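Subject: non-specific serine/threonine protein kinase structure
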Amino acid sequence: MTLLNLFRNKLRGDIPDFVGDLPSLEVLQLWENNFTGSVPRRLGANNRLQLVDLSSNRLTGTLPPDLCAGGKLHTLIALGNSLFGSIPDSLGQCKSLSRIRLGENYLNGSIPKGLFELQKLTQVELQDNLLTGDFPAVVGPAAPNLGEINLSNNQLTGALPASIGNFSGVQKLLLDRNSFSGPLPAEVGRLQELSKADLSGNAIEGGVPPEIGKCRLLTYLDLSRNNLSGRIPPAISGMRILNYLNLSKNHLDGEIPPSISTMQSLTAVDFSYNNLSGLVPGTGQFSYFNATSFVGNPNLCGPYLGPCRPGIADAGHTNHGHGGLSSTIKLLIVLGLLLCSIIFATAAILKARSLKKASDARMWKLTAFQRLDFTCDDVLDSLKEENIIGKGGAGTVYKGSMPNGDHVAVKRLSAMVRGSSHDHGFSAEIQTLGRIRHRHIVRLLGFCSNNETNLLVYEYMPNGSLGELLHGKKGEHLHWDTRYKIAIEAAKGLCYLHHDCSPLILHRDVKSNNILLDSDFEAHVADFGLAKFLQDTGASECMSAIAGSYGYIAPAPGGNPWGSLATASTLSSGSR
């Protein structure tokens, strides 16, 4: 085997032609240099080439035609250059190919026929080029292990084929900023592993297919800047961990389905600049959004947008057979709503009194694992609706402000979890967790308990979770040196739990949402040792200072060598 590894140097000038004539060359890595000129034309003609990485140079010219002449090429990376011309058609028949990353060039022509049918293919990145033609329809079996399709910012046209639903393993589908037209096929609902879908900035028309609600693992959905029409399907609420939803700048009409407001995972929505009408839901996560999420819809009213004009709030509920509701019926509805308000207000007062009574020192016990300048009463004062920063099957997380000015995260375990803990065993286990001291592990400060409730008090992490940072709008600002640092710090925390604690502690729920970041973006492992109390409830929730949870999708057999280490896998997405 011959390896030529000269990456991350300051080499400049042309790549010598003799490199393409090396008879035993199998691996060529020249990334992050200042090479100019073209790629040697005979590269791959020796029939032994397996890996090529020429990314982050200033190369021009076209790609050599014989890169996969020997049928052994599995990785081709040349992103971040100035290459032009078409992608060699031979790559569409390269059965050994696993990863192809040619983004950020000036490549034109169409996507090679057969590329998306290669059975070993796991990653396709062709973004930021000048590619034309259609999204290739899959004639034979689709690539079963293909996890990422990135065709963003090209000049692709035509309708998306129904065969797009055949990519059973795809997790990222990025088709934004092209000229795709026609309807969004209902077969997209078959993408059961899909976690991020961006189809914005196209000319897709027709309605939003209700089948998209079957994508249960979707956390990010952007269909903005298209020509979509019709009503928003209530089936969207079936995506229980959806975090980001953008339907702006389309031609959607009707009301916003009230069921969407019950989606506790939503942290960002945008319905602006459509033809939506009716009352904006004011409950659930919608109480955290502002007017920018709804502007440009003249017939929308309610929270943030002002009172509804006569007839608008009832637009979706008019009795067309009798010309609208009678004044008597409207009066009864108003009186009914007033009565409900009184009942809810009374219930809230009784609940507040009950909570105050429960805070009596004789009922609550504070177990502290270090010197604390607050009491259980201070912790209980933070259990207010406006302080909720996370909610799930395992319980609810509140942000608490203590009298000394410090902030804490208070996790109130749900009834099912409390019922499975059997006070004595739970208390003993929490005592063990409270004694853990490590720089990269979230510190459990103490817990408050009575006969019915357990409140875990943790140090507060102002930058939330790694999952939110990676998958939210701020992900692009998380530089690679910071990602590397976070991965190392998280590994140190896990290493301490697994090897240095007495007794040893298995985390059992490692994922990017359980890696929290302090004010300096230093990593801290969270929710360690709690999995045993949650396993009977079917809940696996994050205690972080955000609403929503990004589940980790385990790689297919023979895939990512990191196995179940979710943080390492997530941090490495998009890396070489």
